[in-house]
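mind reviewing these tokens:
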Amino acid sequence: MPFFVLNITFLVLFFLPFPLIAAQRYTIAFAQDTLANDFRKAQVAEVQKAVATHPNWTFLSSDAHGETALLIHQINHFIDCQVDLIIVGTNDEKAVVPIIAKAYHQGIKVLILDRGIQGGDYTTFIHSDNRKIGQLGARYIAQRLKGKGVVLLLEGLANTDVTRLRTQGFREEMAHYPHIHVIKRRGNYLRSDTIHVMEPLLASPTPIDAIFSESDSMLSGARLVLNRHGIPPQSLITVGCDYTSEAKKAIHEGTQSASILFPLGGVQSVAVAERLFKGKKVPKEIRIPVQLITPHNVRQIKAIF
């Protein structure tokens, strides 16, 4: 009798539907600098949407509210949770290096998204050519101004490679135009901060012929102040970066001259995660192309969000 039961058990096991073992589960965490920035909020949403297409994946995210110490604490929490992969959107290319190295050396896959860090203790860096973004913006403005005028450069966060490289590219290109004078203000990639720096500038006698903003969010804030001071935004050459739906609408309506499409990178991040979870190698650096959007191609190109 026991022999008969044993054989029946064997047959049942033998003919069980394939697969016998449940699919591997993975947890992806996104440690984001701030969700107050439209672009960075959209990055998290894009990753979350892409992760949702994988039933066995879990998505976690955090908002550091622009505070580096909190970002470091949140990354450390994800390490303690033993997640499989961390995506990092940092606000300081130096301060986060030790905690990212800790995650990397504990076997957690680390994707640095958009803003780079110093050192190489991470899995891969997914980004666009920020120096080229600055060059594209400067060249477009210089040509529209015919090589003469005053240009306001609205810079992003001080301690990020994105800001440094965009400013570098912009300065390098503008060096070819000695009759263009550049003034700088810092908006930290936020509308609110940009409004605060634009108000006293427009109240002063300083003339402005053009604006290059290192994000469309900052340029949106600048437009609000221009309108408040009775200056039609279309009377200036204005170029932003990211190519949001708001920027697309403004270009279409003529209140913004151009934007440089800067992809979110969320879809690419999840594609990289898929490869890594399958045991495949990925490049140390992945570049996503950028593109200048003007009234000539605005109808054909989809906004990033």
Notes: The chain has two domains: 26-127+264-287, 130-261. The first strand starts at residue 26 and ends at 32.
